[in-house]
Amino acid sequence: MSTETGAALAGRIEERRRGEGDPRALVGELRRALLLVPVDGGGLWTARLGGVRWICGFTDAEALARFARARGAQESGREWEYAEIRGARLLDEVIPAMEEPAGVAVNIADPDGSMLFPPVAGVVPDTVALVGTEEEGGRE
Question: Is 76 inside any structural domain?
């Protein structure tokens, strides 16, 4: 595993949890971060919630291990495979290729909760961003 993971992103997430920091800086840090993304069945591990497919990424090995424990990896003896992917690649290449509303969920097993980067303008490319509220919904 690379030593260059998402420590700076984890710091920005903590700022936002305290009600501090700039949301745009948080998105910028996601773009720069190297995330650990579990691989399952030849693809990236995702979850569906609220009509959105969420790519689950982790800022470091400890956050990924919490997720694996929560999913019962220790009991099964299963080792979790993962890919190291830059946030910008997830946002600019992977999400548009998914052809459905998709975002990034970071550190979903954190005790303080995950940080969600939804499929909206300013996070994902405008061509795949959701328009309006979920009720108004749909893509352009």
Answer: yes
Among candidates 63, 75, 69, 78, which has minimal Cα distance to 108? 63
* Structural domains in the chain (count): 1
Kindly report, residue by residue over 44-74, the tens digit of the pLDDT: 999 999 999 999 999 999 999 888 888 776 5
How many Cβ atoms sit within 10 Å of the Cβ of residue 117? Answer: 24
Residues in the chain: 140
- 13 found inside a domain: yes
Task: Indicate the average pLDDT of the chain.
Answer: 87
pLDDT number for residue 92: 97
**Is pTM beyond 0.70 here?**
yes
The dihedral sign for the CA sequence 123, 14, 107, 36 = positive
Helix segments in the chain, DSSP class H: 7-17, 23-32, 61-70, 73-76, 87-89, 95-98
In a domain, 92, yes or no: yes
With a CB cutoff of 8 Å and minimum separation 6, the contacts of 37 are 44, 45, 55, 56, 57, 58, 82, 83, 84, 85, 90
